[in-house]
Amino acid sequence: MTQDTRPLIRVVAGILLNQDGDYLLSSRPEGKPYAGYWEFAGGKVEAGETDFQALQREFEEELGIRIRRAVPWLTKIHSYEHARVHLRFMRVEAGWWTGELQAREGQAWSWQKAGDFTVSPMLPANGPLLKALSVPRSFTGRPDTGLEGENASGAYRVVPFGLAEPQHKHILIDEAVLRARGRMPEAESVWVRIQTASQWPHVQDADVVLWQVGNREAAEAVCGVLAGGVSMPLVVAAAPEWNASYRRRWLDGRQYTASATWLFARRPDQYFSFGADGARKQAEDDAESYTRQGMRFGWTQQWPSGLATSAHIGIGHRRYHAADWFGILRRDREYSASVSVSHRKIQFAGITPQIVGVWQRVRSNHFFYSYRKGNVFIQFGRSF
After folding, report:
1. What pTM did the predictor assign?
2. Residue 53 belongs to what H/E stretch?
């Protein structure tokens, strides 16, 4: 089998829902590859765009509707005859979009129920997602005895492999049992249970993966896998203590930060600093995803009397990627300042106390997030 080495083209597609829980499919217009095939609407991510911005633009251009919010779902890489694409699918719940659907490119569109699609043919990269869409968002029960959920078509039950009968549609099997067996069970969908990161590469053919988290190592491994994107639904079954500690991280997705600091020593007892930093957070909810840039300036002085003083100021700008429930696209201006004073002759067992004053202010266009606060405190440090 020849490996496809063509450059990846970034593509985003939207899983758009209506109030009845149906999903929107549209046909590809004439003049495009796979004309007449059905797909989840979307398109290429242009240079300088985030995935969410590309989704907004594509839905406006193709269907005449405005996307207000979206959350990341599955990620797939697919090779077509004409291109190799990196597909990122995003869920758009009912109430997160506005407008009347329009066929602006002459395409057809249809609302479909998960597990009961009536249109064809389906675009190859989109086909496997139809089964994934029928997986409920939450379950009750235990993996050893069975899981119960509900989707738009009704009850959804997952039965352990050892208890399964021919009429059961969804079967759960342990990765170790599957490996020993050598083939997937016969079922409409096969769930594979794992407990460690080493098992993850061996379950990529599963319809759904159930990751049973019982320790910190497994919880951290789930974070790493989610940060890279998953191509099938990943259900995490965790004890309450691990769920409480990691739920937010499992849902928050990826975060990147970078910073640099330059020091200028004017004299041995005095120096100035300048810093720049950037951060990008990609959360499950795009209304909580943001890009941030900031700058920092500082001054430190050692005085002949033994007194040491320092002062720092910082400014930053935080831009969120989507509007929240109030319809507000949040923008924050951040300001900070701090001063500290210590004396080298005031020590206790080598530990020097330091008086620190900190002031912070955030000016936001969102009524809920503007604030101003100041603190004065004593901290203790020791130099080695």
Report:
1. 0.64
2. helix 51-63
